[in-house]
Structure formats: C-alpha cells, structure tokens
Design brief:
Two copies of one chain form a homodimer. Helix content of chain A is 59%, strand content 10%. Chain A contains seven helices and three strands. A three-stranded antiparallel sheet of chain A has the order 1-3-2. The interface between A and B is large, with 77 and 77 residues. Chain A binds a DNA duplex through helix 5 and strand 3.
Amino acid sequence: MNVTTPTSKPIEKLPQELVESTTFLLKRLGFAAKERSLGEYEELGLRPYHHAILLLLDEGSRETQGSIADALGYDRGQLVGLLDELEERGLVERKRDPNDRRRHLVRLTGDGTKTLRRLRGIAGRIEDDFLSPLDDGERAALHALLLRLAEKHEPRCALLPQQP
Amino acid sequence: MNVTTPTSKPIEKLPQELVESTTFLLKRLGFAAKERSLGEYEELGLRPYHHAILLLLDEGSRETQGSIADALGYDRGQLVGLLDELEERGLVERKRDPNDRRRHLVRLTGDGTKTLRRLRGIAGRIEDDFLSPLDDGERAALHALLLRLAEKHEPRCALLPQQP
DNA sequence: TATTGTTATACTCTATAACTATA
DNA sequence: TATAGTTATAGAGTATAACAATA
C-alpha cells in the first residue's frame, strides 16, 4: 500500500490516537526509511539486503551461507538468490569448503569492496537526510533509545551478551 | 523475508555498522512492530489497517471513501476491499451521498464501536509490551523524537500546520 | 471532461517445502 | 539420518490501470 507520497491537496490528518502511538510512528517511519533506501540503492541496481551481506563479509573474511543467513536473519532460500545477484556482478565469490563439501565459503572480491564503498556513501547520505530534523545530541539520544528496544526485539542487535 | 524469529543457537551478530545506523534500527523495529500487530489482531480476524479506519470514523462521524484514503495514506483501490471486509462483519455501513451520488458515506455501526473498543485494548497491550524496556520518561522522549521525524517524513502526523 | 468508487491484472515479496549432494 | 545449499511453487501484499456511474 502506497503510504509514501503526500497528496498535494490540504493534508487530511491522521487520527490523533495513531499519532500518539509510538509503535505506529515506528511502523510508518520504518516503512518510509525502507522506501527511501530502496529508491536510493536503485542507481546501483542493488538493495539494502545486498549491502548488509557485503558489510558482513567485509567484517569477518569468509562466511558460509548458513552463517550469513543466521546473522542477518534472512531465509536461507532467499539468500541464494541474493548471492546469485552479487556473484553475477562479480562482487562476491563462492567456493566449496574443502573440509565439508556441502558448504559454500563466500568472500568479497575487489569489486565488491569498491561497491561497498559506494554503498556506504549512499547509506550515509540517507541517514543524514532522514535524521536532518534532529541535532547531534538528539540523534544520539534517539539511537540509544532505539537500541534499548532492539535488544529486546532484535537480539542480533545486542551489543553485549544477553542475560536471560 | 522472515526477520522475526531468533534462532535458538548462539546468536550471530549483525554487522556493527548496521547496528550503528539509526535508519536501520527504525526499519527493523518498524518491521517487528508490524509483525507483532498482525499477530495480535489476528484473534479478531482484522489488521491494523481496519483499526485505523475505525479510529478515523470514530473521530469525525461520516467520511467519504476518498477522504478516508487520503487521511490514512491508503490506495483507493485497496480501501474498497478493506471496507468490504468491515461491512461484511457489520462494523461499518456505506450509503450513497444524496448530494453527490458518486460518493459513498461511511459510518461506524454500534458493533463497530464495540469492536473498536477491543482493538484499543489490543493496541494498548502491544504498545506497552513493545516499549517495556523503557520507563515513562524515556517513552515520552522517544515519542517526541519520532514525532519530529514524522513531521518531515509523514506530514499527516504533523500536529501543527506545516510552514512551507 | 473530470471524479468517485469498483474491478481486474500483474508484479514483488516471501514462506514453504521438495530436492541434491554431501556428511 | 541429518545438514547445506538449491530450486520450485504458492500465497500474500500491493501497484497500476481500465471501467462504470455520476458530476
């Protein structure tokens, strides 16, 4: 459902109760951020999913497909297609793990590193534009609050080990 | 892509750069909030879209389909199906506007009001659980910050008229 | 001719599960 | 038998545009 484009006419207001709901704002802003990202990444023919994969590979050299999927929370079947697209463009390489021939080891290529640099630039611009209504202190405060929520709802975001 | 269910195994960490990105956290948390809402609303056979429509009708008695779509940012074609579902359950009524027979006037029924009460209860519980890592002051601070962003990215959320 | 609501279509996303090859 | 990766399929969600009635 297209929720992004404001009408040009006098703007009809959302119900007050929705605007007062923090989870509603999170849903709408998350959607807006996603739409923005999809649009900006399009110039490289990639999506945020690809960026996340390249970032992960850039951090810890070689990963198996299963560990990539687990770390990013992606479905393994979906990951195959994403890696196919990255491999076709020569941004990553897959090769069999000689120790366990069921596994594929994936790694960044030189072109992948270059493309990652461009993606970082795009992502940085999106971040800065999206947060432009806030000053630096407010941005830090928002990030800290979101991180607290993410530790509960997205445990992969946790900075420190969970205490159950 | 299934991003909700944490694995039971030792949790693989997301790339640090993603966790440090506020827009990334907004996307993930917005998605998590959406999934949570969809699940909880299921017991009534409804979705958050229906809740938003009922809230809008509850605020300002009779609305045309076009004004509902504009206020909520929904596609008009999609709204038809949502209203069909609400009408089948007897939660809203549609009738032609005698002044302009192209228009349909939509209003809440008594059952609609009752169901809205139950939806408010569900939404309140979701809100409280989702924000449970934060105390009251932190929740207010987060809401205020998100509202600032929403005024830019979702003008319908604006509390005061825009100054262009 | 423009607008309101409706319907139909197509396209994207994603969830599921069957399949292979290795272990 | 269980696991890693692959492939195929179906379903939900949504965007687009054609359409009928009315202005």
